[in-house]
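Project outcomes to date are best conveyed with an example. Our students and postdoctoral researchers have been running inverse folding experiments weekly, and each run begins with a structure described purely in tokens. The record below, which covers 569 residues, was selected by the lab manager from last quarter's runs and is presented without edits.
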């Protein structure tokens, strides 16, 4: 009996021990699972951190070129390898004009400040004679001299405009009806009222800042070395009225760009001083490029990056709109008159960031993108027209696009969403229907690089001038950058064009001739219509203009931008 009780007790104890061991084992299993989950999370975090480190190292020490190298030399290319394609602040300060009147007694009137400023510089005289002077009835009685500071590369000089005066030889006789007793040629209009700087110097100041990325304070040093001390406030004071002079051209350029059928859009930042906060704010400039017409505009709307800004700018636009994946452009998605196109270069950048994290997947994605670019190289090598390029894309690119879309669907579930590859697919997949839209027309580009090329000079200038003094200065920056970017796109010498246009615009905007210039010159674009405008100008302004180069298929602005379009004789 005792033996039986003992055995039962022993069994009961063992069962309790087993039960405790099972509970302990269950606890250990749960703890192990939690540790495994934590380990997985930590490994994922470590992978993310390693990816960030790799990305930072690539930004600091990696190559900056976006040219794709051969990813796998042992892998056969889908298409034959071809040669690489062609690489594609401002307070108004008025400085009075140094004007002196030379009378027969030799007395001169001149600003002492300007006289000291221009002292020691070479002087080039330009004599402007009045028209139709009868020397049998008139004699020279004096002259008026007006000085402007002009610029040649590496040289400053003073251009002195001499206007001889003619009076009747017989003081007792009266001038004929409609004539004056004293005849003198009118003073040629100045780009800026009572400004010491001539057109060439004003053009150079703008070019130095926005073409060569030299801010005003550095230009001051350069001009000092050339023999003249120009305060920085004077340069900035000339900046605003020059922009106002060029603003009518900018306004019409905006109409032409937004009225085209295919534009590329992008945005960039600019620092603008906020006087209320006592610091600079990061504001935004929008860039719109008419890809076919080779026209570029920058748009500034109080620094806003909101979608409403671009919608207002392109409210009347109809055609293809190419951009990156910024959500502001989603407002045009599904619009009847606008077809959105994605940028393959932006997609490639996201995939390239995943190389150091998941090389096999990233290399596959980049290889498919590379094949799409190879198709464009084939079209370039064969010099295909738009129709031929479109047919080639439909035949060769469509299978790649469809296959890559399925690959993204299958791959996304296999990678962490927060990984570089997960983020790349998250960016790319919603844009893929837009990416396929480039197949519709052979004139469309596969990426948005033309837009980024237009922005690049501004980013270089921004690193040097650092900020704009206020919103108005930022708007003026948009005007100048638009005109210079269009010159670059048209492959026109920006110095020659800007010098020419600043010199001639005052003639066009003078009295009624400016009105006729705007109404006529913007209305017609053909070669024959422009000839009629030329004749009208001869009649209204009494200035003689000739056209040296014209093209039937170019817009009026393209003609106007050509530095040799007009010549005065």
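After processing, the design step wrote out the following sequence:
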């Amino acid at each position: 009996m005792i033996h039986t009780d003992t055995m039962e007790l022993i069994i009961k104890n063992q069962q309790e021990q087993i039960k405790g061991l099972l509970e302990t084992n269950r606890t250990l299993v749960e703890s192990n699972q939690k540790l495994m989950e934590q380990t997985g999370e930590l490994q994922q975090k470590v992978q993310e951190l390693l990816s960030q480190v790799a990305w930072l190292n690539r930004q600091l020490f990696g190559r900056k070129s976006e040219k794709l190298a051969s990813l796998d030399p042992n892998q056969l290319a889908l298409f034959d390898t071809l040669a690489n394609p062609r690489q594609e602040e401002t307070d108004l300060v008025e400085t009075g004009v140094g004007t002196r009147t030379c009378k027969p007694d030799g007395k001169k009137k001149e600003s002492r400040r300007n006289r000291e400023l221009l002292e020691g510089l070479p002087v080039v005289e330009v004599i402007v004679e009045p028209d139709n002077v009868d020397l049998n009835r008139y004699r020279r009685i004096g002259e008026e001299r007006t000085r402007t500071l002009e610029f040649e590369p590496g040289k400053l000089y003073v251009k002195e405009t001499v206007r001889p005066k003619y009076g009747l030889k017989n003081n007792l006789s009266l001038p004929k009806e409609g004539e004056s007793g004293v005849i003198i040629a009118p003073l040629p209009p100045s780009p800026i009222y009572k400004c010491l700087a001539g057109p060439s110097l004003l053009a150079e100041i703008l070019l130095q800042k926005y073409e060569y990325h030299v801010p005003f304070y550095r230009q001051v040093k350069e001009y000092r070395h050339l023999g003249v001390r120009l305060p920085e406030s004077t340069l900035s004071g000339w900046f605003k009225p020059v922009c106002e002079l060029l603003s009518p051209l900018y306004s019409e350029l905006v109409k032409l760009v937004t009225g085209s059928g295919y534009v590329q859009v992008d945005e960039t930042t600019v620092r603008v001083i906020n006087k209320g906060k006592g610091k600079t704010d990061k504001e935004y400039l929008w860039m719109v490029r008419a890809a076919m017409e080779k026209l570029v505009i920058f748009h500034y709307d109080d620094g806003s990056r909101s979608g409403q800004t671009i919608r207002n700018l392109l409210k009347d636009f109809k055609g293809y709109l190419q951009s990156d994946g910024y959500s502001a452009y989603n407002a045009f998605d599904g619009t009847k008159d606008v077809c959105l196109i994605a940028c393959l270069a932006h997609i490639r950048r996201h995939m390239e960031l995943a190389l150091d994290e998941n090389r096999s997947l990233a290399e596959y994605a980049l290889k498919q993108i590379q094949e799409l670019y190879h198709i464009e190289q084939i079209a370039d090598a064969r010099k295909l027209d738009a129709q031929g390029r479109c047919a080639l894309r439909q035949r060769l690119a469509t299978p790649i696009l469809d296959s890559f879309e399925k690959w993204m669907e299958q791959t996304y579930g296999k990678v962490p969403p927060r990984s570089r590859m997960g983020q790349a697919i998250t960016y790319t997949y919603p844009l893929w229907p837009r990416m396929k839209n480039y197949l519709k027309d052979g004139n469309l580009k596969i990426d948005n690089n033309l837009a980024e090329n237009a922005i690049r000079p501004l980013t270089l200038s921004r690193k040097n001038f650092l900020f704009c003094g206020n919103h108005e200065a930022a708007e003026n920056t948009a005007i100048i950058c638009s005109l210079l970017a269009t010159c670059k796109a048209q492959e026109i010498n920006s110095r020659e064009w800007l010098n020419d246009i600043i010199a001639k615009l005052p003639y066009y905007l003078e009295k009624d001739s400016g009105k006729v210039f705007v109404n006529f010159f913007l209305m017609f674009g053909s070669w024959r219509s422009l000839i009629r405008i030329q004749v009208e100008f001869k009649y209204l302004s009494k200035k003689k203009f000739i056209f040296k180069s014209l093209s039937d298929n170019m817009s009026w602005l393209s003609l106007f931008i050509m530095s040799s379009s007009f010549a005065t004789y």
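Confidence is low (pLDDT under 50) at residues 78-107, 511-569. Residues 80 and 374 are 8 Å apart (CA to CA). The training component of this project remains on track.
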